[in-house]
Amino acid sequence: MISVQKTRVFIRFRKGPMLTVRCLVAIAMLWLWLSGDAAQAKERVTSAPASWKLYTNARFGFTVRYPPDWRLGEPLPDGVGVTIMSPVPQSQIAFSGFLNLVEGASQDGRQTLDEFASAHRRILGEHYGQKNIALKWQEDRTVTLGGLPAKQLSFSYQNESKTEIIELHILSLGRNEGRGVRIKFPASSRSALMPLLADVLQTYQPGRDQNAVSPFQPIPKTDPQEKAK
Known about the structure:
Blueprint: H1 17-34, H2 38-44, E1 53-56, E2 63-66, E3 71-75, E4 81-85, E5 92-99, H3 113-130, E6 136-137, E7 141-145, E8 148-158, E9 164-173, E10 177-186, H4 190-202, H5 224-228
Antiparallel strand pairs: 1-2, 3-4, 4-5, 5-10, 6-8, 7-8, 8-9, 9-10
Helix pairs in contact: 1-4
């Protein structure tokens, strides 16, 4: 987990309201691609093209196929996943797995999907706030990931080069484990990337059972006031 300090940051965008409108349109269009009904998804991708490559995560067992001109990055720490880069500059999609160990309101005393999504949103805000980058959040959406219930967090921002970037974080969580996908791309590339991103996600398989009961005890939540003492 990233440890950061809370920082309130306000950035004025040079292009005014139209920048926000374009972000809204791009995120809405991508969500329509990602959350289309099963019939539309089956029509788009019944199986990955033979030329597509396969990534399998040895630790969590999830798999995904991706186009041959996309490139695998370095494995994520502790073998939890990988980042895949498309040929479009400043775009990438990262797949990861994680354990559900934090104390929460689930039947096993661990976090629920809503609790985890809320914590993830807070960490993202603090992380980008430390970089003096203001996020424009969109409404969270209920979607699926590999056939499992998931939450999609969506936001946009301007990076250091004043490029408008869109990010989507898709999170699923079982009794023991969870899966995550982070999609990042320039808003100007949405037309070229949206169909491929949707097709890549249709090939995703979550791997081993996320609902198996964990042998580990949940980690108690830390009270911020206690931590400050």
